[in-house]
Amino acid sequence: MELERLSAVELGRRIAAGELKCSEVVRYFLDRSIERNAALNALIEIDEEALNAAEEIDRRSSRESRRSPLEGVPIVIKDILCMEGKRTTCASRMLENFTAPYTATAVKRLLDGGVLPIGRANMDEFAMGGSTETSYFGVTRNPWDLSRTPGGSSGGSAAALAAGMAPLAVGTDTGGSVRQPSAYCGVVGLKPTYGRISRYGLVAFASSLDQVGPMAHYVEDVAALLQLMAGPDGRDSTSLPAAVDDYLGALGKPLDGLRVGVISEHVEHPDVAPEVRQAVQRAITHLTDLGAALEQVHLALTRYAVPTYYLVAPSEASSNLSRYDGVHYGYRDRPAEGVESPLVSMMSRTRSHGFGDEVKRRVMLGTFALSAGYYDAYYKKALKVRRMIAEEMRRAFERVDVLVGPVAPTPAFSLGENADDPVRMYLQDQFTVAANLAGIPALAVPAGFNDQGLPLAVQLQGAPLSEATLLNVAYHLQQNRFFVPRVAEWK
Amino acid sequence: MQLTIEQVRKVAQLARLEFTEEQLESFSAQLASIISFVEQLKDVDTEGVEVLSHPHALQDALREDEVQEGLSRQAALANAPAHDGECFLVPPVLG
Amino acid sequence: MTLDACQLVVGLEVHVQLRTQTKLFCGCPTIFGAPANTQVCPVCLGLPGALPVLNRRAVELAVQTGLALNCAIPARTKWDRKNYFYPDLPKGYQISQFDLPICGPGWLEFPDPDAPEHTLRVRLVRAHLEEDAGKSMHDEKSGRGDSRIDLNRAGTPLLEIVTEPDLRSPQAAKAFLTELRLLLTYLDVSDCNMQEGSLRVDANVNLHIDTPSGKVATPIVEVKNLNSFRAVERALAYEQQRQWQQWQRDGKQLGEVPKQTRGWDENQAVTVPQREKEESSDYRYFPDPDLVPIAIDAELIERCRACLGERPLELRLRLQQEYGLTAYDADVIVAQGRALVEYFEMVVAKGASAKRASSWLQQDVLRTLNEQNLTIEQFPIDADKLGELIAAVEKGELENSRARDVFQYYLGHPQAGLEQARAALGIVQVDDRELTELCQKLLDEHPQIVAQAKAGDLKGLGALIGAAKRRNPNVDPRKVRSICQHLIEQQG
Ligand SMILES: [Mg+2]
Ligand SMILES: [Zn+2]
After folding, report:
1. What are the tens digits of pLDDT across the range A193-247?
2. Does B68 touch chain A (CB under 8 A)?
3. pTM, rounded to two decimals
4. CATH number of the structural domain spanning residue A100
5. For B59, which of C27, C42, C294 is closest by C-beta distance?
6. What is the ipTM of this complex?
7. Which residues are bridge partners to C162 per DSSP?
């Protein structure tokens, strides 16, 4: 039985109905993970302890009600969400031996729903990167082409899904880190509205942009995951107080009257590869067939999204990452001999040797942007442009319900291709970062494959808290066979 | 903008990072290219625009003044690079 | 030129620990003296992924304090990060307030130490909320051994009150701080215990010097490590001398050298230069993205205002106006705290005159409190009983020294009433006939005193009064005196 072909919701149903034993399901995905991880390096750690929880589910009496539709279903979690008693490394030498003494709210809600974590997914160090090449634990490879990147920073989560190592995954998205790897790996990935899922226990990269995001092959699985994780949290001051919608219940509702906007600047952008543009066109055709009204939308300011993002995110990061100084936890280096202040030397050497180059680049950039004399011209300026971008997007959603466009300019690029040109790497995010700046939800939806067999994708964006609409649109695309969930196989 | 090695050195010191001369040079070049890239924001007229530091206009996330359970000392010190069972230990604060 | 030509100019920064059950951004308790690192959680340890959530009570206490300090309270306040590296600062930044402090400009008036009937006014720049750092402990003996870090204190709510440079003498600085502490104690917003670090003071000091070519200002020095109000007073006096000498030596003016930080060395009674943080002061403040702004609405302000009660300054005036106390007496009573003021008012309400009540409080009550190390709440004689006792003296039913005997008796017998005390002490009123007989007898026994009195020298009467009291402790000395005088006059 090829369990990796089933949706998570279907797996959950079969486990609940007694058609599948939970422990067999978990064993199956653990074995697959162990086997495939050798080639992919998608998981930093594989956790067999999930079997204990699985056996407990199998022992449970049939009278007990299910904790969620995903009870008993395995999941991989990006190694940036704290889980009590588990190593949480952020793919950094700095936290190589850090064991979290508490559990992130999002993870706790998954555990409460009976979802079973089987592995910690690889990622770019501290989620800084778009290719999972900056991980201290080595690069992750794309299951569709091992010479290519799975994208990043949630590359491990996306690659594990694509390879059928688990039916569910959790990533995080600060500038596109769920959507871009989802696009490169051919899975569905959602960046929810900022504040929809608690950030408590999510190791911060850029606090005003970070969001936890559900990922899976099937739209209904992403909806079910969001259903579990979303909602207000008293431990996160920035979590939204609004009640949670019925995401699963919304799937399949007719799309009549849906207004779809096409982002001209993105679709026509010269960096966009022809097959990506065609994918977007194809999506538009499907949506019109489904009864949606179409409109061209101009987002003139989105060209400033990347420079804005590359000031806001590093500034916040430079402060968020100050806590890694070798004092209370994490890596510590020895002070140099004969220095005036061994303490300062210890801290500087710890940070210099504990962080990789990309992290140091961003910490330097952020420190610069916040420093005396540059604050107004860089950081503050970026916050003003940020407001303008957010308002431009808000105005667009007065006219349309959903914006459609590309996720990334191209399909997955080759490993090493952008490694020595940070700016070129940053431009991979040019269509995704605006959603983070504006705090709106955005969804990467698979769109078939190019002739090299690489996954293609389109992006759907909506007004704040319109996740139910985005997921429903994607669900229609899935039901309409705009895309067919598929697991990568290789020799 | 032009970024001198001295400026980069000062930023590194603020960020508590140490670089060799060689690293300092390559970092300066990379930083300079990123900074000139982000400088295109100068083209945007932001006259009269308020900053946006939170995506949503939330306010008043408050907690009652009630004691919640924290971590045991053992758990608090468990990840410490050095401790004496009671306190975190660091190289002398006063050199 | 002499020292007279130079004016000391002082501004203070006072960090006050607010009296909350839990820390500013997490639910850890703030009990002083707990074993190291036992009041910590992921938030105040600055663990990866942990997030701050603001304590409502801290906001209320800050607004209350701000209102009592006549501060403008903005409709909206927010949080900023102050970035610097220090091992007792677990996140590498302190959550503080930069451009929108919870309390705007205000002022505090306090008794002028040189003339208690006058007040001085110091303007306040602002007061803002921030989290405290942990504690670094350095082993002095082993020299370069490791420092130990305790994070129990990390995250405790502080209100940082910043004054304008309006203070002009060490004594005025001390008087300001005394008043501030008294006010905060009246408000019950802080323990204000300097030994426990719940009130900490830094001073910014320089001199304005009159020179033939005009006024010049010396460079500002920040003095830290001021662990008592006495230390503040001494350190400022020391700095006045030191800066004067320094200026005479190098003539350096404000702006010509960077601001210096010096620490007060209590044992040597000197200030010594402290090593500067190498980043100088580039704290890279920016809005904390983990916290949202707070709206301070009229309802909150009114609720806080309702909690203020009478402030020391208002109380002093009322005690003077309503009870006719002197400024000095009013100050002594108010300085003891709100409970003693209430005690005083109850004593007077029972029929004691304000003057007599004030003097009993200042002498008998306060002395006993000091000797027995009690608070007024623990004092065994309640205000009603003391009021009744003083009223009896007032009415002439009880002689003053016998009243003191009763007072002492009460201390040992907290349950006793006045009748029981009288009986126990054998206090009976002496009638006039009995008293006249006793006086006559004494005059007969001391003819030389009578002779002196007739010659206009009344000194000897004191001895007669003493003798009378020895024979009958219940006699009223004033009556003894007047009857004796009367009898001598009658003898012609
Ligand atoms: Mg302060
Ligand atoms: Zn805490």
Report:
1. 999 999 999 999 999 999 999 999 999 999 999 999 999 999 999 999 999 999 9
2. no
3. 0.93
4. 3.90.1300.10
5. C294
6. 0.97
7. C13, C126
